[in-house]
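Notes taken during the Thursday session

The instructor put the following on the board and asked us to keep it in front of us for the whole hour. The protein is Purine nucleoside phosphorylase. We were told not to look anything up and to reason only from what is written here. First, the residues (270 in total):
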Amino acid sequence: MQKYITETADYLKNKGFDTPEIGIILGTGLGQLVNELEILEEVSYNHIPNFPTATIEFHKGKLIYGILEGKKVIVMQGRFHIYEGYSLQDVTYPVRVMKALGIHTLLVSNASGAINLDFKKGELMLIDDHINLQGSSPLAFKGVEQLGERFVDMSAPYDLDINAKFKTIAKAHKIKLHEGVYASVVGPQLETRAEYRMLKIMGADAVGMSTVPEIIVANHLNLKAAAVSVLTDECDPNHLKPVNITEIIAMATKAEPDMIVLFKELIKSL
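Then, after some discussion, the predicted structure tokens were revealed:
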């Protein structure tokens, strides 16, 4: 895999992706952050050697390099999910490439359903810890030890200093920011009532279909990592209604300005 990573990183360096400091994965709720960027270079995923390509219509597929709050950033506009048929190595490949280009910090956003019924849709949740229910690990492949320590410590997968900064920023800007445990499932189907009950018993505050593989690999690469969820629906098994994707996207859009403030102010402080 190292050969492929080097090849991809060299291609991007030749395109002008020059020593970025921070990698950002734009999940749901952070799409408009690109409007805040001074864009220096951008490349479609399908032009990048060895890169997976995006298949979801509301996920764009571009790697963007630019300046945000005075920092050099590399932004993934569109991420990969195992429910699209990718392997966990595919899903996390861009994180390895961003590290090869020079990032020291990875910031992630996503959409999730609120299992904790004290949390309401349209609010944000800072991920403090996670439960991996995706059935495997992005580190479970032959030769992984050539890229980093095989047995990665996960006692604090989300950087405590960054999380503390996020909380301080939220308080200063009067943004409601919950903190909790994110469970990552395969999808793409939503959960049954029984599955929501199981997740609650397990200690999950929110559930989604992404983020955990990228965070595991960030830890494998000794990157500082943090993630924030937009809570797009409330998962009450006793009053469960059919899912409405339009409403979910509307909730993410509603939360977006707050998410952008959090990320911009954080990057300013890094």
